[in-house]
Amino acid sequence: EPFQHGKGSSHLHGTLRSGSDAESSVTAPNGRLHDYDNLFAMDGSVMNFAGNSNPTHTIMANARRMALAAK
What we know:
Layout: H1 56-70
């Protein structure tokens, strides 16, 4: 019998914790990976929290903010 589960969806994010401390986070607040000078993560992976609704607009706004800061 196939696995039964309820209908729904999820938005996975938060796999690259963002923060100013390289010991407890993977990326700086601007999305740059701590151990690399020219590698940035500008997607949902840097979001440390899960909201209660679709995060698409938040991800887009953060990506734009980080891209402008990376210039």
